[in-house]
Amino acid sequence: MDCIIREWDIKDKYKLAEMLNNKNIQNNLRDGLPYPYTADDAEEYIVSMLSADKTKTFAFAITLNDIAIGSIGVFRCGNIHSRTAEMGYYVGEPYWGNGFATNAVKQICKYIFDNTDIIRIFAEPFAYNTASCHVLEKAGFQFEGTLHSNAVKNGKIIDMKMYALVKFNSCEGDN
User: Fold this and answer.
1) By percentage, how much of the chain surpasses pLDDT 90?
2) 154 CB contacts (<8 Å, ≥6 apart)?
3) Which residues, 6+ apart, have CB-to-CB distance to 91 below 8 Å?
4) Domain of residue 71, residue span
5) How many domains does the chain have?
6) In-domain check, residue 117
7) pLDDT band at 174 (very low <50, low <70, confident <90, very high)
8) In the predicted model, is pLDDT for residue 173 greater than 80?
9) Residue range 31-43: average pLDDT?
10) Does a structural domain hold residue 115?
11) DSSP calls for the chain
12) Which residues contact residue 22 at a Cβ distance below 8 angstroms, ignoring those fewer than 6 apart?
């Protein structure tokens, strides 16, 4: 069964709150999310993504049978990096290990490369998040290096890894 990425809908707020009310998910995301994460927090996020600049923010729900099981977004950088974008994603813990994240990454990269002038998409997973690194590798991203002591998460200084997919080197037709 394949997942589908689609625009967020306000009705997704309860599933979003359920997913993000999980420390195993939040431990792999950047800081700034409230915990506990409520339906009101989720609604605020969804509204902000739906009203964001559609040339800079590409945020989608990852869905299975039209039920949100995760989130994926690509965010255009600025200035001399305006044709580069950063990607972030997660899938709810009950859905881990089923290929949904890899499928969603491939879908959003194809969408970005087909519909925008962005030529490079990068992601910076925490080095300890080997599952996320594996998702990127399976989706065709190239490992570009380790960003040593690049972040502080849960009070610990940690490394991150840099992965990128460049439009001209990507397998755009692969899904």
Assistant:
1) 94
2) 27
3) 62, 69, 70, 100, 101, 104
4) 4-124
5) 1
6) yes
7) very low
8) no
9) 95
10) yes
11) ---EEEE--GGGHHHHHHHHS-HHHHTTS-S---SSPPHHHHHHHHHHHHTS-TTTEEEEEEEETTEEEEEEEEEE--GGGTTEEEEEEEE-GGGTTSSHHHHHHHHHHHHHHHHSS--EEEE--BTT-HHHHHHHHHTTPEEEEEEEEEEEETTEEEEEEEEEEEGGGS-TT--
12) 92, 93
Residues in the chain: 175
Give the global pTM.
0.93
Closest CA to 88 of 110, 59, 50, 111: 59
In sequence order, the 6+-apart residues with CB closer than 8 A to the CB of 103 are 2, 3, 175
Residue 132 within a domain:
no
Q: Which pLDDT does position 168 carry in this prediction?
A: 80
The pLDDT tens digits of the residues spanning 78-137 come to 999 999 999 999 999 999 999 999 999 999 999 999 999 999 999 999 999 999 999 999
Token duo for residue 149: 């002591």
For residue 107, is it within any domain?
A: yes
**Cα(72)–Cα(89) distance, integer angstroms:** 4
Q: What is the CATH number of the domain that holds 85?
A: 3.40.630.30
